[in-house]
Amino acid sequence: MIETFTYEALPSRVRFGRGTISDVAAEVERLGRRALVLTTPQQVGAGQRLGALLGPALAGYFTEATMHTPVEVTERALVTLRETGADCVVALGGGSTTGLGKALALRTGVAQVVIPTTYAGSEMTPILGQTEAGRKTTIRSLDVLPETVIYDVDLTVSLPPLLSATSGINAMAHAVEALYARDRNPIISLMAEDGIRALSSALPILVHEPGNLEARTNALYGAWLCGCCLGAVGMALHHKLCHTLGGSFDLPHAETHTVILPHAVAYNAAAAPEAMAAICRALGAPDAAQGLFDLVRALGVPLSLAELGMPESGIETAADIAVENPYWNPRPITRDGIRDLLANAYAGERPRAAIVEDEAA
Ligand code: NAD
User: Fold this and answer.
1) Which pLDDT score is estimated for 356?
2) CA-CA distance, 17 to 78, in Å (whole number)?
3) Spacing of C-alpha 104 from chain mean position
């Protein structure tokens, strides 16, 4: 049954397809005159090919984008932005490069074109995480939402198979939590279910055939839908837990999401039956948490927090942190429940169905 809901559309222009990067000069022209190209040091070559397509609209390059958007990197990029006189940025890369573009937009109002090359989904969200002196803070503001996103399937072919798998599961996690979000709505739930369906069908193909264009197209389309979910509704246990684990033990972002997702879904299953039914339909599996675990296992990526380098003592530490600042979740957050979840994820064991009767009070 459709419940009372609020739906707020986020303004953004999307070009999707193969070879769409060739439209970049025209897309920049809609927003400004000259663009600063942003990349990581690993994607300098792709940035230069993009610069050639921009022609006279190219103002310069900044190639030091870094994971978790350190403020000192943003300050160096600000100097380059001012020196080149750019009134637009084109961020080509994953969530790290998109984050830098957003950080510049927040400080200067510069217009953004984003060309995503991973499945992280940051390009569809008004959210920016930044780190300063080792502390990560997150803000939500329409000022950081990119104006234009160019999805070019061809640029994702070079994403290594295992990174494709973990980045894809990271994206699916946005959709999974959107399905049981407190502020969920039927439009975003449609996107979430189709995003899970598209990614879960594509990822097992991509780990063996990274050049399969049909699977690449499905994965990028799914990542777009999942990014929309992250931008539109609030996240819960899974995202909070991954944030805690990443921050406390310096664990890699997408891999942590990949390990935790089946366990977070098992924890919430009994409290979110409609969401579980949608996940099952999307995966073609009889049980949501088990289906996600089987998918992750089939991808050949790490299944345990131990493999990611978390110390065993982290189980107790993270369980303590998880109950420190209460937040909304379909099933109440209890220390024992989170401890069990983490112990299971630490060992990489199959998620256990949660026992919820004792929590009715
Ligand atoms: P990333 O951007 O750090 O990229 C990982 C590495 O892969 C980089 O070296 C990058 O240059 C390289 N790479 C990217 N695409 C490639 C391609 N097609 N071919 C070859 N190499 C490629 O990783 P990510 O997972 O996309 O982003 C993670 C960051 O994004 C984290 O800081 C996370 O917090 C942030 N994030 C933010 C949001 C948001 O809404 N604000 C959403 C999701 C993620």
Assistant:
1) 52
2) 31
3) 20
User: Ligand 1 — pocket residues by CB below 6 A?
Assistant: 40, 42-43, 67-68, 93-97, 99, 117-118, 120-122, 125, 127-129, 155-156, 158-159, 167, 230, 253-254
- What lies within 8 Å, CB to CB, of 94 at 6+ separation is 40, 116, 117, 118, 120, 122, 167
Give the sign of the dihedral formed by CA 270, CA 243, CA 14, CA 23: negative
Tokens found for residue 54: 């921009």
Distance CA 17, CA 151 (A): 6
Report how far residue 89's alpha carbon sits from residue 101's, in angstroms, rounded to the nearest whole number. Answer: 7
Residues pairing with 132 in the sheet: 135
Distance CA 223, CA 64 (A): 25
- Which domains, and CATH codes, for the chain? 13-156 (3.40.50.1970), 161-347 (1.20.1090.10)
Half-sphere exposure of 203 (CA within 13 A, CB side): 32
* Cβ-based neighbour number of residue 106 at 10 Å: 16
Pocket test for ligand 1, best of 43, 50, 151, 169 (most atoms within 8 A of CB): 43
Tokens 């879960």 identify what position?
200
Rounded to the nearest 5°, which phi and psi values hold at 116? -75, 140
Contact present, 177 and 219 (Cβ < 8 Å): no
Task: Give the chain's residues under pLDDT 50.
Answer: 357-361
- 8 Å CB contact between 268 and 329: yes
CB-CB neighbours of 1 under 10 Å: 3
pLDDT score for 292: 98
Whole-number pLDDT of residue 322: 87
Nearest C-alpha to atom 7 of ligand 1 is from which residue? 94
Nearest-CA residue for atom 28 of ligand 1: 95
First to last CA, the chain: 27
Q: What pLDDT does residue 133 have? A: 82
Do the Cβ atoms of 342 and 305 come closer than 8 Å?
yes
